[in-house]
Amino acid sequence: xxxxxxxxxxxxxxxxxxxxxxxxxxxxxxxxxxxxxxxxxxxxxxxxxxxxxxxxxxxxxxxxxxxxxxxxxxxxxxxxxxxxxxxxxxxxxxxxxxxxxxxxxxxxxxxxxxxxxxxxxxxxxxxxxxxxxxxxxxxxxxxxxxxxxxxxxxxxxxxxxxxxxxxxxxxxxxxxxxxxxxxxxxxxxxxxxxxxxxxxxxxxxxxxxxxxxxxxxxxxxxxxxxxxxxxxxxxxxxxxxxxxxxxxxxxxxxxxxxxxxxxxxxxxxxxxxxxxxxxxxxxxxxxxxxxxxxxxxxxxxxxxxxxxxxxxxxxxxxxxxxxxxxxxxxxxxxxxxxxxxxxxxxxxxxxxxxxxxxxxxxxxxxxxxxxxxxxxxxxxxxxxxxxxxxxxxxxxxxxxxxxxxxxxxxxxxxxxxxxxxxxxxxxxxx
Length: 430
Ligand SMILES: Cc1cc2nc3c(=O)[nH]c(=O)nc-3n(C[C@H](O)[C@H](O)[C@H](O)COP(=O)(O)OP(=O)(O)OC[C@H]3O[C@@H](n4cnc5c(N)ncnc54)[C@H](O)[C@@H]3O)c2cc1C
What we know:
By secondary structure, this protein is an alpha+beta fold.
C-alpha cells in the first residue's frame, strides 16, 4: 500500500537520518508542525551505516566548536541515543605532532576534556597503562579525548526518531521526493512526492549521500568556483565528489578491546609511518597507513582509508558491505601491530553490512545554509553522524535566530574565500 502524506506541512523535512530527525525533534519541541518524509525509512542512509565514532579531533576551529556542542547532546540522554562515552584517542607519527598539539590547545580553550602526550616513550607508557600488550612503535603524539566515544548507528537513530515523534513530529516512511514547485521569487510552494504533492512553508533537505540529485532538482550549480584565502581561484570544481569508506569487523567479543581494568575502550585512531607486516612477517605496506577501531554490538569494528570515487556515483541501491581486496589484511595487521591480543585476528575477519559512500562538497566541509528563501540544506560532507547538534541549530535558524556554530558553513564561503584551514592529512575527514 502506498504511504500517505498530508496535503500540506508547515515544515517538510526530507530525509530521516541524523540531521532530518534532529531538526524535526527540535522544531517540534518548539511547537512547530513538522512532517519528515523518507523514501525508505528511519536510518536507511549513511546514519544507519556509520561506524558511529564521536570525536572532537578536527584541525578546523569551527568544526571543533560544533563537535563540542554535539557531544553535549549525545551526553544528554545516553540511553536513548545508545551512546558510549568511552572517549577517543588519536595517535600519530612526528608529522602529526604540530596539528594535534594545536587541536589540543583549542580544546583547552573551549573546555573540552582532553590530554596530550608527546614523545615515543610517553605515548607508549600512556597506552600501556590502559592496554598492557600495546606494542605499536613510532607513534610520538597521542591526543586522548576523555569525552566523546561512539554510539550504535541504527539504535541511536530510532532513539532520535522517538524523540521527534514524542515532540509531535510526524514521520512518513516510503515517501520519495521527486520535484519542487516554485513561485516567481524562487520560493518552493509545493514538494512533489511519490504519494502526491505537499504544500509547504519551509523545506529542510537532509538527504546525506543523495544530495546531488536534490541539489539538481533545485537548479543549484553542479560546478562552482572556489575562492581561496590567498586570492587564488579553482574554477569549475564539481560541487559533489564521492568517497567510499571501507569498514569491516573481526568476529571477536567486543570486550577483546577492553582496557586492562575492564573498561570499554576509547575509540582508537592510529596513523603510522611504520612498515606494516602480517603476523607471519610478510610486508603489507611500507607506505603511511591509518585505521580506527571500536567495540561494536557483538564484535570489534573499524575501518581505514577511504577510496576516492569521483563526481559520479550510483547511490541507489545504497552500496555497502564491500571493500578493497587488500583491506582485511591491512586492517587486521594494523590491529595486531598495535596490540598482541589481536595476533591471528585475520581469521576472524567478517565482511558484514558496513562501509558505504559519502558525498563531499567542493572543499570537503559541510554546507549548512538556506539555498532558497524557504529551503534549508544540511549537507554535512560525510562528517556528520556525530553532528547531532546541527538539527538544533537549523531549527533555531528556521525560527529566526542566528547560529554562530553554523555560520562558518555557509555556501557563500566558496565565493568569499572564507574557507576552513586544511590539515596535512591525506583524507578529507580531518
Ligand atoms: C561507512 C560510513 C561510516 C561513517 N562513519 C562515521 C562515523 O563514525 N562518525 C561520523 O560522525 N560520521 C560517519 N559517517 C558519516 C555520516 O554517516 C553521515 O555524514 C551522516 O550520517 C549523514 O546524515 P544525513 O542525515 O545527512 O543523511 P542520511 O543518514 O544518509 O539520511 C538521508 C536519508 O534521506 C533519504 N532520502 C534520500 N533521497 C530522498 C528523496 N528523494 N526523498 C525522500 N527521502 C530521501 C534516505 O533514504 C536516507 O534515509 C560515516 C559514513 C559512512 C558512509
